[in-house]
Specification:
This protein has helices at about 5-10, 15-30, 35-55, 75-95, 95-100, 110-125, 130-150, 155-185, 190-200, 205-220, 230-235, 240-265, 270-290, 300-320, 320-345, 365-370, 370-385, 390-405, 410-435, 445-480, and strands at about 65, 70-75, 350, 355. By secondary structure, it is mostly helical. A two-stranded antiparallel sheet has the order 1-2. It catalyses: a quinone + NADH + 5 H(+)(in) = a quinol + NAD(+) + 4 H(+)(out). GO terms for molecular function: NADH dehydrogenase (quinone) (non-electrogenic) activity; NADH dehydrogenase (ubiquinone) activity; quinone binding.
Length: about 475
């Protein structure tokens, strides 16, 4: 069906709202200065909520609509990912106010940059063309580079931003080179056209080489091994609220783009890319399981934890089936809630002298702040995949998808990696409940952090078991829209 310009724009209202709203807030901030930072933050959250409402009630929720000559697709998959991304970004802004004020970083640019990054992510999850794919990634990445170095007076933060920028440029080169090869061997940049050519030819060597380069570039965006080298330094060096944002929304956007690009563009060469994804998943799970053991900084530990969790999500993607994509969406939804809650607790690790990041600072927390220890324990159990916490269900579905696709060995490796990674999660639990107490943290964490921490813990254990059924149904519908 050919859409008029007016009809096309009705499907792009969320992105238009984010773009126009970000520009308006930027202009307002320029005129009012940093004293408007709080107002801009609240307006940014309202803007993200408004965009989420537009997505939910978009007419594309009940149909698959192709926009701009096949450059973007509005479907249930994009809707699912966008709502989660907008929600994670809104929480990242809300959780940051007290931290930024305490570190004297209360500048109005921060929420605007998050909104612009979310705009790029929104384009990413709907992209169905190599050009629009790259446009979405770069729109996201340019804002993230600045956010990583947002604390310009900190050497660690500026170093994190520089590393992220240099390695991000390298990953973009790999992605562009791969996209150029795919275009050269297929003669088209649309996902549908690439799939048609890939299915109609037996000589796919050049196409597969281009695909491998694209996978390498996309793996960097989700910090999957062996393209993870930027993650620990950026997580540690960036301001903690920025790290919380990095660990949630961009990971979901990257994984959604990964799933759409592979399942829509290259279903005819599944046997060629499936082993590559499986190997990346194994490498990510191994790096996450072993490298985190030696960490003493909680943010670096969460960096390696995120690498491992991306490996588990890729296990589901490696299946290459509707069930596999559905399991990825379920896993990422649970992962985002776990991550937001965990970083809310990390942001509560404040003493009179400022923020603390050492794992040893959590020692004896049960005796100095029992509610905080309880929340962190629940979230760590879920991250480790201990039943009946929600993290267990996430791993269960991705491993089940791998088994049903005949990748039993990959599921076994995942179970082993999960058992190893449980050591460093449970070690923190031991510190909190059985070690001698460290100096107490400040009690006044603020309502936003308290709500985020308690809400995440309640959703993880055991309340989410009530909602796991609807989550499975919604993720199944979203995944089916890709096939």
């Amino acid at each position: 069906m050919e859409l008029s310009l007016a009809q096309t724009l009705t499907f792009t209202y969320p992105e238009l709202a984010l773009a126009i709203g970000a520009m308006a807030l930027l202009i307002y901030g320029v005129f009012r200065g940093d004293k408007a930072a709080g107002q801009v933050s609240l307006a940014s959250v309202a803007l993200l909520v408004f965009a989420g409402v537009l997505v939910i009630f978009s007419p594309g929720a009940q149909q698959n609509v192709s926009l701009f000559n096949g450059a973007f697709q509005i479907d249930a998959f994009a809707k699912f990912a966008k709502v989660l991304i907008y929600g994670a970004a809104a929480f990242a802004i809300l959780m940051s106010d007290r931290y930024l004020a305490g570190e004297k970083l209360g500048r109005f640019e921060y929420p605007v940059l998050i909104v612009l990054a979310v705009l790029g992510m929104s384009l990413m999850v709907s992209a169905t063309d190599l050009i629009s794919l790259y446009m979405g990634i770069e729109t996201q990445s340019l804002a993230l580079y600045i956010l990583a170095s947002f604390n310009r007076d900190s050497r660690r933060s500026t170093e994190a931003g520089l590393k992220y920028f240099v390695l991000g440029a390298l990953s973009s080169c790999l992605l562009l080179y791969g996209a150029s090869l795919v275009y050269g061997f297929t003669g088209t940049t649309t996902f549908e056209g690439i799939a048609s050519v890939a299915a109609s030819t037996d000589q796919n060597t050049g196409l597969v080489i281009g695909l491998i380069f694209m996978i390498s570039g996309l793996a960097f965006k989700v910090s999957a091994a062996p393209f993870h080298m930027w993650t620990p330094d950026v997580y540690e060096g960036a301001p903690t609220p920025v790290t919380a944002f990095f660990a949630a929304a961009p990971k979901l956007a990257g994984m959604a783009l990964f799933a759409r690009a592979l399942t829509v563009s290259f279903p005819g060469v599944l046997t060629d890319w499936q082993p590559v994804i499986a190997l990346i998943a194994v490498a990510s799970m191994a790096v996450g399981a072993f490298s985190a053991i030696a960490q003493t900084n909680i943010k670096r530990l969460m960096a390696y934890s995120s690498i491992g969790h991306m490996g588990y999500a890729l296990v589901g993607l490696a299946a290459g089936t509707t069930q596999g994509v559905s399991s990825v969406l379920i896993y990422m939804a649970i992962y985002i809630v776990m991550t937001i809650g965990t970083f809310a607790v990390i942001l509560m690790m404040r003493r009179r002298g400022g923020m603390t990041e050492n794992i040893s600072d959590l020692s004896g927390l049960s005796r100095t702040n029992a509610p905080m220890a309880l929340i962190m324990t629940v979230l760590l159990f879920s991250l480790a995949g201990v039943p009946p916490a929600a993290g267990f269900f996430g791993k269960w579905f991705v491993f089940l998808a791998a088994v049903d696709a005949g990748l039993i060995w990959l599921a076994v490796v995942g179970v082993i990696a999960s058992a190893i990674s449980a050591f460093y999660y449970l070690r923190i639990v031991w510190f909190m409940w059985f070690d001698e107490p460290a100096p107490a943290f400040e009690r006044d964490a603020g309502p936003t952090l308290t709500v985020a921490a308690w809400g995440s813990a309640l959703l993880m254990f055991p309340v989410l078991t009530v909602f796991i059924g609807p989550l499975i149904d919604i993720a199944g519908l979203a995944a089916a829209s890709l096939f």
